[in-house]
Amino acid sequence: MTSKDDRPADAADLRRRAEKKARTDEALAQKPLSPKESGRLLHELQVHQIELEMQNEELRRTQGELEAARARYFDLFDLAPVGYFTVSEQGLILEANLTAAGLLGVERRDLVKKPLTRFILPEDQDIYYCHRKQLFETGTAQVYDLRVLRADTDPFWGALGDDRGA
After folding, report:
1. Distance of alpha carbon 152 from its chain centroid, rounded?
2. Which residues, listed in sequence order, are joined to residue 115 by a DSSP beta bridge?
3. pLDDT tens, 56-85?
């Protein structure tokens, strides 16, 4: 997705390239146009303008749908009553929802790019590794219990579920 800061530069670049092409096209078409040719070109320009307006409308509709999907994702993932992590194949936390951060007693931003094993009791890490290995060998979702480390208190039992997703 393009940030708002990128749009002006992209629009300016697009305008610059279009004007360059227009100058090139003007240089090629130095002869005067007949009224019939002028009418045809005017019609082509009007049709092209309508096409661009329709494309712009479609882009705005799609942007609205993306914003709605992002809001649904926020509701489903971030506000879920259970902790969720997205973990890389290397075991690094890519995303965590608010509940997961709260359960671990850390800020969510402090979880990103940290190994999930950092939050698993050392005596239970073999359980984690065995289930992850089985997940990647068979593709079958895994659900298992192990003890999770919390920043400000004793470890607690948690149920982990691994799924490779789609």
Report:
1. 32
2. 92
3. 999 999 999 999 999 998 888 888 999 999
